[in-house]
Structure formats: C-alpha cells, structure tokens
Amino acid sequence: MTDAITYELMGDIAILAANNPPVNALGYDVRIGLVQGIERAEQDGARAVLIYGEGATFFAGADIREFGLPPKEPFLPDVCTRIESSPLIVVSALHGTALGGGLEIALGSHYRIAVPSARMGLPEVLIGVMPGAGGTQRLPRLVGIDKSLDIITSGRQIGAGEALELGIIDRVQDGAPREIGLAYARELLDMGAPRRAISEMPAPAPVDFDALYDATLKKSRGQLAPAVAVRGVQASVELPFAEGMKRERELFRELMETDQRQGMIHAFFAERQVGKLPELKGVAPRPLADIGVIGGGTMGAGIATSALLSGLNVTMLEMSPEAAEAAKGRIAGNLSGALKRGKISQAKFDDLTEKALSLTTSYDDLSQVDLVIEAVYEDMEVKKKVFTQLDAVCKPGAVLASNTSYLNIDEIAAMTSRPGDVIGLHFFSPAHVMKLLEIVVADKTAPEVTATGFALGKRMGKVSVRAGVCDGFIGNRILSIYRTAADHMILDGATPYQIDAALEEFGFAMGPYAVGDLAGLDIGWAVRKRKRAEGLPEGARDFTYADKLCEGGNFGQKTGKGYYDYAAGARARVPNPDVIPFIEADRAALGITPRDFTSDEIVRRYMASMVNESAKVVGEGIARRPLDVDVTLLYGYGFPRYRGGPLKWADMVGLPGLLADIREWAETDPNFWQPAPLLEQLVAEGRTFDDLNKESA
Ligand code: T1G
C-alpha cells in the first residue's frame, strides 16, 4: 500500500481512502494504491469496498503533471477495469469535484453516492484530450449517446442533483463521504444488492456519428479533442467493451501527441501560475469590504456589478443625481442578466441594488472606503483632478486605483501625497463578464497595494496579470502592433475580409476587423489621432482609409456599418462596399501596387508581429514572464486557447524561423520589423520562452 491510499477493514467492508492533496490527482502512487487495496480486500474476505477521498475532493482526475512523461503502469483505464471486475460490491462516495479520471474511477465502481455539493464531469477536452479511462465507453451505457456527448464534448461540470437525475449516481446524501459511503455499502450488503458493472450493460443504439463528428468539429472552431471524443463514444456502440476500451486508448494517445494538448495544458498551468509572483510572497493584502467607483458609465457600472456580485459594498460616485441614477440603471441591467440566468435570486438582486450599492455625488462619502476605482473619461487632466480629490478625502491606507487603459499611472500617482497607495486596475469591457484584469504596478506602488489588487481580482473571479507602466500596458500595447501589421498588409494588397477569414481559420473567434466593428471603430480612431498628435516614429506607414470610414460615422455594429454592413445582421458578415475604395485611394496616394497575400502569409506576419512585441514586453519587464503575456492574450483578446497563447505558439512553431522572417521583413520595413532583443537572445542561446517561464517559477 502507499500513503496516497490508506486501507482499513471495518467488519466486512474494506475502506480505501485517498490522501493526495491538493486534489487527490490519480498519480502513480494513487493508482497502485487502489489496485493493491482492491486485491487486499479480496484476500481479506471483505464483501464490499468503499472508495472515497480525504481532503477537498474525490479524485479530480489524472495527474496532469504526468502528461508528456512516459506513462507508468498501472494505467488508469486498467485501474478502473480492475475495480469493476472485483467480485466484491465496490462503492464510490463523491465530494468536491470528481473530474475526468476521478469520475471514471466512480464509473468503474458498482454504486455511486455523493454529497449534495459534489460536482462531477469529464473535462478532458478542456485540456486538449478526451476521457481515456473508460469514460467514453461507460457513460454512454449509463446515460445514452446524447447526454454523454453533451457532458464529454463540453467538458462541463454537473451538480449532484443533475447527476442523480441522469443516473450517473445512485444517491445524494448529506454527511461526510466516509460516513455516507459506509452506510450505503452496508445497506447494499444487507439488501443483497448485486454487483453492477456498467461494462456489462447494453451499449446504446447507433446514431449518425459522422454527422455528429462534423458538427462537433465545426462548433469547436478547429479544436480537435471534442470531435475525436465523438469517435470514442462511437466505439462504445460499434465495438465490444474491451475493443472499445482499446479504441478509446488509441484515440486518447493520438490527442496526447498534439500541439493542442500542449497548448491547453500550458494554458491550464499558466492561468494558475500568473497570480504567483515572488515579489508578493508573504505580503498581506489590505482588508477589502467597501469600495468606491467613480464614474458610472459602461466600464464603471461593469466594475461595480462585478464588485457587488463578489460581496463587496459599492459607493458609486457620479457628477449629478441623474447620472448616478443612470449608473444604477446600468448596474441593475447587468445584474438582471445574472437574475435571468439563475445565478442570483430576486432577493439577492434587491439586496445588491438597494443595500450593497449606494449612490452619491459627494467625494466625502468615499472617506471610509478601503479602495476606490476611478473609471472616468480617458483624459489625464480629468484623472489628475479626481486623484487630487481622492487624496484629500480618502482614509489613510485606502487604495486609489485607476481603470485607465493606457495613461501613465506614475503621472497620476504623482498628483497625490500617497503614491504608494496608487495602482492601475485595468478591467476589460464588459467588466462584469471579461475575466482579464491587468494590475498595473507603478514605480512607487507599495507591495501590499499590489497584493490588494490581486486579492480584489481573485474575489471578483478575475484572472489577474501584473503589468508594468507603458502605453497600453501588456495587452493593448501588443494589440496595437498586430493590428498595425494587419493594416500594413491591407496597404500592400490584402483586404480586411481576407485577414479576418485567415485569423478565424487560425482559431480566433473573430478577426481583427470584425473585432473592431464590435468594440467600436471610434476607439481605434481616437488612438490613431492621439499617436499622430504625439508624433509617429520615423518611417511609420500612416494611412487614412480607417479614418475616412470613421469620418463617415461608421463605427461598426453600433452604427450599423463599419468594415461590414450590419443591415443583414452581425452574422451575415456582409462587407461594407465603401471600404475597398478608401483602401485603393490610400494605395494610389502611397504609390503602392497591390499584391496577393495567402492566408498562411497573413497569419505568419500577424503572429510574428504579436510574438515580437510580446518579446519586447517581457524583455522590458512590463510582463514578468512569457506566460503572463499568454494569459493576457487568452483572457482578453480571444487568442485560441488550444494554441496556448502567442509565446507558447511561438515555441511550438520554432523561434529561429520567426526571427528569420522578422529579419527578412526588416530589410523592407526596418521601422516596423525591429527584432526584439529577447527573441534574438533566446534564438542565439537555443532557448525557448518556456525555458524563461521555468526559470521564474
Ligand atoms: N493534476 C495535477 N494537478 C492538478 C490537477 C490535476 N488534475 N488539478 C488541479 N491541480 C493542481 C493545480 O495546478 C493547483 O496547483 C492545485 O492543484 C489547486 O488547483 C484519463 C487523462 C480540481 C476544480 O481536468 O479543474 O483525468 O497551483 O488552483 O480552484 O480521462 O483544479 O496549487 O501548485 O485549480 O480549487 C481531468 C483539472 C484530468 C481537473 C480545483 N481533470 N483541475 O480547482 O484549485 S485529465 C481535470 C481543476 C484525466 C483521464 C484523463 C481544478 C479543480 P498549485 P486549483 P481549485
């Protein structure tokens, strides 16, 4: 036996308890412990076996840290089959999150009981693989094709109630897993319940799996795992169980070899690593109970909504009672979405809007809040006035945060007598939906203020990334570069529609021009005007077609026209016929003879510019690690998760080839294609961005 699985014989019931914190992952010690435990129970003459988890949860799946390493026997599917083939009655008692291999262990048992708060599922597709320990063979026998495919291809978690309804578990009972499991095993023995092996149940009737495969592949926008999982379920129908298990294993191993699995595992660990910063080790955040939000427009109302939903009290300050009421209306509108989806009750809705939220037009009402977030007009003079007033009224130790998307936090902090308390909290619109939060740390920001920003982000359910101060911080700075790369390709011969199609084929939910239409083209227009006013770098390729589009009042979806004409609806993607003539006029004025672009070249240039600027952002310390950039692009900019993020993608396609392209393009456009020093250094040293991540872990 191993410590990871303890064995105890209580009368005629053997108890196998998992002790492998933090999530009882099914690493080697756990697997061997389960097999030895079953064997010992049979040798001891037990009549039943109870399997449950100590600590936070039943098994939460295979040990993802073993992925990519040579698999070590006993393999998980064999452990599940060993459990199922035991002549004893095997009961699993579930709590916490019985996920992936964890649920597969439970499906290998003969009976399953769960506490009411237990959740379960087969989320393997979310990390680029598929159930590989019998999930695609047993679940369809238990709940049928439709329900099993819904659970397997979505990777979603289901609650104990739904699992009971579906027949995945037999009973839901309050109490400790060990106690309710023991009582249930006793009851089964006393009633002479038979062994009940799912593998011996009849397979469901066949359906059109080719159609299901195609529909699933289309829905997952190029991600392979969900569609391949359909083939696994198909095997459960078309092959005898043992053959089906072999087929499942083959398909699972194929997915394990894919770049997509590498990308999604990278994303899984990166989104957990990103909040772990050496500079914050042992640094306690300041208390957070009451916060102030200044400015109740779309952003301010979204931030207030997110704060209210996380249990914070919010004082919303606006310039007039009418504006304050309008802000409350936006917040109520946001919350009504949560109400409709059943995330909050009507009573909760009322409590949030009538008690937790208060409105004011006086800064004095912010004198006792723990933290203030200003979300006023993006103008430095306006922000400075706000922070001067905050400095005068807020209690000592209050955190003073700006939601600015690019303005200099050092400059804002300098307006106060307490620069150590000033930080940037850059939310993404809509702030109550988007998970990314850039925590912008200024020169003088105190470590506990940074820690407080991360504590607020965690409380709000955000994925927070530490950013340094520069124009656009991490995400918007990189966005402006890869958008420019796209604009340059348009000047040289590509169309916005080709570029959108190429990037959507690559895996983005929307290409850059469709995204511009969605966000509002006036935002980019304002940035271009600001940057022209600040003076463009020598040799920068300027253009006017995008401005002409905006001068005509075409800001995208909100005005009905942008790069696309929305009269036929957003999904129709009808190009706006005014756009190409504007582009052709620019090309003529610049003396450019347009040339053809392939989708491959479009993606290569777009991605090379993204990787190059990301390398500059890491090299300058604006982002602490390459994984911080990956998480930013995954959570704020629609980067396809199965590619892991731009720098994970770069490692997988090869840094030398990317650098060679950039150097070749620099010969014709040295201003735009300046190789990032960090990229040159990594290539010279034969290292990868992941090597940097490992060094800073
Ligand atoms: N393997 C290894 N480590 C894991 C892990 C796993 N499966 N799950 C979590 N961790 C680590 C995580 O990295 C973090 O580490 C710590 O545990 C706490 O996690 C054959 C092959 C279970 C809902 O996909 O969804 O089974 O940062 O911060 O918010 O078919 O973790 O502390 O060092 O997320 O309470 C299928 C993935 C695997 C579940 C808990 N299972 N995990 O959430 O804590 S594939 C999964 C989760 C499989 C079989 C296939 C969540 C959680 P550190 P956490 P949490």
Description:
With 697 residues, the chain is α/β, with parallel strands linked by helices. It has three domains: 5-123 and 132-199, 2-enoyl-CoA Hydratase, Chain A, domain 1 (Alpha-Beta Complex), CATH 3.90.226; 288-467, Rossmann fold (3-Layer(aba) Sandwich); 475-696, N-(1-d-carboxylethyl)-l-norvaline Dehydrogenase, domain 2 (Orthogonal Bundle), CATH 1.10.1040. The chain is 49% helix and 11% strand. The chain is built from 29 helices and 19 strands. The strands form four sheets. Strands 12-11-10-13-14-15-16-17 form an eight-stranded mixed sheet, with helices on both faces. Strand 1 and strand 2 (13-18) form a beta hairpin. Helix 1 (28-43) runs parallel beside helix 2 (76-84). It is globular. The model has no long low-confidence stretch (mean pLDDT 96). The site of (2S,3S)-3-hydroxy-2-methylbutanoyl-COA has 24 residues, from strand 5 and helix 3.
Provide the spatial order of strands within the biggest beta sheet. Answer: 12-11-10-13-14-15-16-17
CATH class of the largest domain: Mainly Alpha
Shape: globular
What binds here, in terms of ligands, is: (2S,3S)-3-hydroxy-2-methylbutanoyl-COA
Q: Determine the structural class based on helices, strands and strand pairing.
A: alpha/beta
Total helices: the number is 29
Briefly note the CATH topology name of the largest domain: N-(1-d-carboxylethyl)-l-norvaline Dehydrogenase, domain 2
Average pLDDT: 96
Percentage of residues in helical conformation: 40-55%
Number of strands: 19
Please tell me the total number of domains.
Answer: 3
Please report which band the strand proportion falls in: under 5%, 5-15%, 15-25%, 25-35%, 35-45% or over 45%. 5-15%
Q: Residue ranges: pLDDT <50 for 5 or more in a row?
A: none
Q: Quote the distance from N terminus to C terminus.
A: 33 Å
The biggest sheet amounts to: 8 strands, mixed
